[in-house]
From TrEMBL:
UniProt xrefs under InterPro entries: HATPase_C_sf, HATPase_dom, His_kinase_dom, HisK_dim/P_dom, HisK_dim/P_sf, HssS/ArlS-like
One function term, GO molecular function aspect: ATP binding
Pfam families: HATPase_c (PF02518)
Gene3D superfamilies linked: 1.10.287.130, Histidine kinase-like ATPase, C-terminal domain
EC number: 2.7.13.3
Catalysed reaction, written as an equation: ATP + protein L-histidine = ADP + protein N-phospho-L-histidine
PANTHER family: SENSOR HISTIDINE KINASE CPXA
A GO term from the CC aspect: plasma membrane
Keyword Manganese carried by entry: no
Name the record gives this protein: histidine kinase
Organism per entry: Finegoldia magna (Peptostreptococcus magnus)
Length: 431
């Protein structure tokens, strides 16, 4: 359990770090794209070098003009007096003569909102102007190298601090996890022990603590129930065994009541069979259930019981609106579920038995009513509470039917009526 929690927490930390590196990666892509974007316009130094290399008696000759036109750049050359002596595609808003303040302005900033780059010639200056909103000019042409190193060092410090904080938070969270989980781990280790200490049902893990406490309580109740059940089973088996022993103790073997011995052996066999079935139901795989017609199974039960008890009256009332309804089931277990109730009514009542099947509101309801004196309310309570104590003889078959119904995702209902016992099975139908 600890390893699972730690692994999950490590995954969270790894994901956070991965996200951080992913963001850094995106930032690097952003910088790279910006770097590539600036290549849309040629470097001013390259423009000047080309013009310088291809000048003749003038700078802005035809070859250089074609080059500048191709790059969408206009240019002017001014002499030492600030007068334009050469130009190419000069806009009208740019004046023809500049004073000292004009030169100081466009060398640092813009000329008529055009980003211009100035180069010194022997007899003056040459300016190359790019389109408006193409390049940005900063009001400085230097950067403090020490400041650059300082910023880089600060970035590394911040990254290191980030990892340190992640590690600190990791250690704190691990410590808190162990602090909160350790009592739960100890409780789980002792959940089936007599010295189990009830967990405090408060805090962030109160739901888990509550579940563990309930599991321990359920186990203790089960242990007590099993103890009582074993004592009850011993009593139920002891009585037929005593009768068998008494018969076998007769000196005259001709006086043996073999029919009585067979009946007692059958009682023991039925008790053990019921208990084995009760224990095995918990291990049945519902994935093997198939969609079958419950109507066919019920009819077979009724026919079999009438053949075994020809003098009894079992009235079958079919109220199904759809005779082709299906239910995901194990036919053998479903047969046993209905049979147990009818056998119980046949064994303990004298009157007629009604079996009604209906399907209101997309449900299947199987109802069995007899005309006996019902079942002791304590037995009904124990059946509903799944307590096997003292029901091995009176009610074990009903309890097995309840288990089978729940195995089929159904609901079980039992109650005493004035006319006798009323048992119902309710299932949701397959759409």
């Amino acid at each position: 359990m600890f390893d699972f929690i730690i692994k999950r927490f490590k995954k969270i930390v790894i994901r956070i770090l991965a996200l951080m590196f992913f963001l850094i990666f995106l930032f690097m892509i952003f910088l790279y794209l910006n770097y590539r974007l600036k290549d849309q316009y040629p470097n001013p130094d390259k423009i000047y070098s080309y013009v310088e290399d291809n000048k003749t008696s003038i700078y802005l000759n035809e070859k250089n003009k074609e080059f500048l036109k191709e790059k969408d750049i206009w240019a002017i050359r001014i002499n030492k007096n600030g007068k334009i002596v050469e130009s190419f595609n000069k806009p009208k808003e740019v004046k023809n003569k500049f004073d000292l303040t004009d030169v100081a302005g466009f060398t640092r900033y813009y000329l008529a909102d055009y980003p211009v780059f100035t180069y010194i010639l022997k007899d003056g200056l040459i300016l190359f102007a790019y389109p408006k909103n193409s390049l940005d000019k900063f009001p400085f042409n230097y950067y403090n190298f020490k400041n650059l190193l300082f910023n880089f060092e600060m970035f590394l410090v911040f990254v290191i601090l980030f990892f340190i904080f992640v590690y600190i938070f990791y250690r704190i969270d691990i410590k808190n996890i162990f602090k909160n989980i350790l009592p739960l781990q100890e409780a789980i280790d002792k959940i089936y022990e007599d010295d189990y200490e009830k967990l405090d049902e408060s805090g962030e893990l109160k739901d888990l603590a509550l579940s563990i406490n309930k599991a321990n309580e359920k186990y203790n109740n089960l242990k007590k129930s099993q103890s009582k059940w074993i004592r009850g089973l011993s009593h139920d088996v002891r009585t037929p065994l005593a009768k068998i022993s008494w018969e076998l103790s007769k000196k005259n073997k001709n006086d043996l009541d073999t029919r009585n011995i067979q009946d007692q052996v059958l009682k023991i066999s039925n008790i053990l069979e019921g208990l084995n079935l009760t224990m095995s139901l918990a291990n049945i795989d519902k994935e093997n259930f198939e969609s079958k017609s419950p109507l066919k199974v019920i009819r077979k039960v009724i026919v079999d019981k009438l053949n075994e008890n020809p003098k009894r009256e079992i009235i079958f009332e079919n109220r199904l609106r759809d005779p082709d309804i299906k239910l995901k089931m194990d036919p053998t277990l479903f047969y046993r579920m209905v049979e147990n109730i009818i056998k119980n009514s046949l064994a303990y009542t004298e009157g007629k038995i009604d079996l009604i099947i209906s399907n209101p509101d997309n449900q299947l309801i199987i109802r069995v009513l007899d005309q006996g004196c019902g079942v002791d309310e304590d037995i009904i309570k124990r059946i509903n509470d799944e307590d096997l104590t003292n029901i091995t003889r009176h009610g074990l078959g009903i309890f097995i039917s309840k288990q089978i119904a729940e195995l089929h995702d159904g609901k079980f209902s039992i109650e005493n009526k004035d006319q006798g016992l009323d048992v119902s099975f309710i299932f949701d139908l397959i759409n």
